[in-house]
Amino acid sequence: MEIKTAIQRRYIYIVLILLAAASFVAFGRTAGNDFINLDDNKYITENNNIQSGFILKSIKWAATAVVVGNWHPLTLFSHMLDWSLFGANASGHHIVSLLLHIGAVIFLFLFLNKTTNNLWPSAFATALFAIHPLRVESVAWAAERKDVLSMFFGMASIYTYSFYAEKNKISKYFLCLILFVFALMSKPMMVTIPFLLMLLDYWPLERWQKALNDPSSNRLSSAGKLILEKIPFILLTILFVIIAFRTHTKGTFITSVFLAPFLTRCANAAVSYATYIEKTFWPTNLVVYYPYDFSPPLGKVLICVIILLLITAAVVYHIRKLPFLFVGWFWYLGTLVPVIGLFQFGTQSMADRYTYLPSIGITVMISWGIALLLSRYNITQKIFLPVGIVIIILLTVLTWRQCGYWKNSITLFSRTLQLTKNNYVAHNHLASALLKKRLFDKVIHHYDEAIRINPIYAHAYYNRGIAYYTFGQKMRALDDFKKASGLIPKSLEYASVYNNIGVIYTDFGQYQPAIDNFNEAIRLDPHCRDALNNRAYVYLKYYHNLSGCNDARKACELGNCKTLEIVHENGLCR
């Protein structure tokens, strides 16, 4: 018995090493990738609070800040730590994300192996999850640190739950609960974990069966206990759902019902569910942004709905004989609910990163389904082993190649435009990347295309205004900034629009309109250091020394000391 246990332990170590090695091979080239201009700037490269490190002010900010419509303090703390260690070197940030992904992979394998006592299906399911090309967006995108960090804590929570389910130790329960809170504070998508725990109680833990079939105890009481122990998890879920909804609403990230009617969102959800499955089995044409289709073909929607209903009916029908199919399928369906589009966050129709947690359900169905076929139809492992190895190698190659498309913003969004139609978001971000290369004609072309496709796309007007200003066409820049200001909600995030309008009026010598726009920028964002600095310059130019010096000092405290340094040289504001 001890020899058998030692051999099993050795196999577990070998599998863990192979899973880590395969992940490094598949995702290792991300270490040579740069940051991209989609959210990386907001989280890292242009975020002064992140770059300030672990000072009291930045810590307070990270604990309360809403960034890109999300409240996730642990994610912000992790970015602060990365910047403290690696600065602007993107390689370090990417390597940390990969290590967190590998940590999540290890916890998943340990959980599956512990609860099923079935090494090779556990290893194969975990490998499919670990190195699939759909994981690239979560691992290779620095701004998606929230994905890998929340998954790390989420899988650790589930693994800890398996120990609690085994012996009902209160210490394990609270550790599981704490890890769940950490996962939620990394990304609110983990609100589905209480639902997962109830599924896992059915298979592989079989706690529901034991509770309902034990003649020596009150079945209703035993079943109620399983629900009762989830109450703290459910309450936390409700709390974080409320927080997530409020922060997304505050950041105007919930798409208007007028823009995306409920029936349209339902149709998109059905198509997305089916498309994610398709891309799981045929992972091609993966892009960073999938444009929203407001008029999906009715036939396509009906086919997707029928497929989903047939699979659901089949797994429910075979729930007792094949419980892994039921659990895997509802793992997939249930964990996608927060991001499937019924409550539309952003303007994308779907996203590869949304499959990070849900895909585990599909890999469980595949792996244990194959194991069942091997045992039922006497298919030898001599056939399955080389086929499995080939599949893993193929996925590794595809993932390695997909990571290459994330090398930089130009590569990423050029690839996206090749594979999608009418993708105004990709045009906008490609133009912003080309602006750094000072390729004026190409920059304006892509901004023009973004505006042609979506005439109310404020970001494109704003960014084209920056391009015009950069190339000296200030009147066109002013016109674009004004158009952007009329299309966007007046919120903190868009204070820079009014600051830029003020800058142009300052250049034209029209100081009162400049002051008015700087005032609006500061009203929207009292910590807008550039607007404070620019208003200080105008005040001081017109001998409002007291107001100018106050603004200059405030701007310098926030990190922009340009005006204060100039006036110090002239003996002012001392």
Describe this structure in words.
- The protein is an all-alpha fold and 574 residues long.
- The protein folds into 2 domains: 2-404, no CATH class; 409-569, Serine Threonine Protein Phosphatase 5, Tetratricopeptide repeat (Alpha Horseshoe).
- It contains 29 helices and no strands.
- It has helices at 2-27, 40-45, 48-51, 56-64, 73-86, 90-116, 119-131, 136-140, 145-167, 170-184, 193-202, 207-213, 219-228, 231-250, 262-281, 298-317, 323-336, 359-376, 381-404, 409-419, 424-435, 440-453, 458-470, 474-487, 495-507, 511-524, 529-541, 545-557, 562-569.
- Helix 6 (90-116) packs antiparallel against helix 7 (119-131), helix 9 runs antiparallel to helix 10 (170-184) and helix 23 runs antiparallel to helix 24.
- It is elongated and about 90 Å long.
- The model is unreliable at 253-258 (pLDDT under 50).
Which structural class matches the secondary elements? mainly alpha
What does the main sheet amount to?
none
Tally of separate helices: 29
Provide the gyration radius in Å.
Answer: 27 Å
List the domain count as a whole number: 2
What would the principal axes of the Cα set say about the shape?
A: elongated
Report the strand count.
0
Helix percentage range: over 70%
List SSEs in N-to-C order: HHHHHHHHHHHHHHHHHHHHHHHHHHHHH
Unreliable spans are 253-258
Beta strand %:
under 5%
Rounded mean pLDDT is 92
Calculate the terminal CA-CA distance, rounded to whole Å.
81 Å
